[in-house]
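Quick question, first post here. What does this chain look like in 3D?
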Amino acid sequence: MTAMLVGMVILMPSGAQVPIQDDTLTLQIVLQGFNDAVTVEVDPLNNVYVLDRLQGTITKWSPGGKAQVFGGRGSIGGQFESPSDLDATTGFLFLIADTGNGRIQRLGSDLVFLESLAPDERGSVSGRGAIDHQFEAGRGNLSVSFSPIALSSSPDGRVFAVDRSGSAIYEWTSNRQQVNRLSLGVNQRFQPTDLDVFGNSMFITDDSRNRVIVADLFGNELMSFGEEVLHHPLALQVNQRFIVVLDGDRLVFFNRQGNLVRIASIPSRDAPTDFYIRGSAIYLTDRNNLYVSR
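> Answer (accepted):
Ran it through. Tokens below.
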């Protein structure tokens, strides 16, 4: 639902004038009381999940309106320290970027701990190659050299995570017996804020150059775009039609070729932290609230 609709024309770098839709979202608060909500996800059954970084919790909000809270601060399995991201793509397996504990946690459909994933001390070496990973049931290896801030999974079960340093992306094979370090270009560093895998490509928001990087699943950069439009890219979501970026207090829609098609302003009282689009609904979080726009 939109409250305002105005036609605009943006001059793109090629010189071609592309008409875009510019509108303002109408938001309704549906959950309150978070301390530092940083991620919102929706599973195939339309359950909504909100990750609270300060409390180390996951809140599950069902379509019937029931809210359940899981997790808490700590280092054992099912507890988190300063978590940054959550993947609920399948609805029966969940991935948590447990940033403060230096690991990724895998949880089952009932949000019960399954295992921890983290590269060992060799994760800091350069180049692409096999790296062992180790974990103990309930703990993980609490790697100090690995600080995952965003993650995503591929349709075949591989896990991809970007490290806070921005020097590499880590890929776990579907059986999680090997982890590869993927470098995006030689000596190229960036400031990642989010990662999404769709089809055979990965999409990364880079706050250092205000752009979206598109790479194949081997880490080879294919293209980048958005530098003329984006100001502070924080999160993104990719679907069959669009690449949508949370850019400050607006959602910026690009087509799959990287051309701008829509800008939607967000009238939140606090700075938005994440979003998720499911059908006609747009879920958004700021630090304290979960909103929906339909």
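The radius of gyration is 19 Å.
The CA atoms of residues 210 and 230 lie 5 Å apart.
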